[in-house]
Design goal:
Layout lengths: L1 H11 L10 H12 L8 E5 L7 H6 L3 E6 L2 H10 L6 E5 L13 E6 L3 H4 L3 H11 E12 L1 H10 L4 H10 L1 E4 L8 E4 L3 H10 L3 E7 L15 H12 L10 E7 L1
Parallel strand pairs: 1-2, 1-4, 2-3, 4-5
Antiparallel strand pairs: 5-9, 6-7, 8-9
Helix pairs in contact: 2-10, 7-8
Length: 254
Amino acid sequence: MEKEVETFYDKVASNYSDHDDRVCDEIIEHFIIVNLPKNKTLKILDAGGGTGRFSEPLLKKCHKVVLTELSNEMLKKAKNKLVSYQNIEYLKNSVTNMAGLKNDSFDVVLMINAILDYCGDYNQAMQEAYRILKKGGLLIATVNNRLLYCKSHELKEGDYGLFRKNMKTGDRYIVWGGQEKGHISHEFTLDELKNSLIENGFNIKKLLGIFNLMDKYEMNDITNKNEFIKLQIEFAEKEVYLNNSQDFFFVAEK
């Protein structure tokens, strides 16, 4: 599983967008920033940080960041993007095996944009995050909502047998970026996500549906993006629409 993901992202890296202008990532950035502990310099792990899209706003606020990636090519893009910043380190590793990082050493661990879905063993990744977090430290992450992803792919394409199978297991084989081969993504139900966090020792502080108004891949086509972002931030806090969101955003405390 790890090798498949590493190979996939090495291949797509050359054409991979930094996502600086994606509306959905602006919304994610907002919720990361507002949920960080205030008035202190934090040591933050951006696990599976890609090109550094979410590391950069943290660096601008003078936090200390360690960015890890499984893909060497994505690491190269991150280093080029963030070359002007001094308060960042880079490591090549998997989120399921962060042996190079010490116990109780981070204030915050980020696993943004389906890192837990792609990693192969999300329980192991949660355990690693728990190990390296300080007591009271936060795991901040997003995962895919199984219902919405299976609905918008297998169900929309009329493959009802595959829809039933993937809804049962949560394991979908995905290919994008013009590649011939892809990798497995494990999509979460709401209860599965809650139970996994609790079983791995975390206290759930916040759980939001941050894309519950519109398909996140269509958000860039809307008019008046600033007003839409404000509206989506407002509705993300409404629990009644939680399971209508493509992604679940959570903050969990050690």
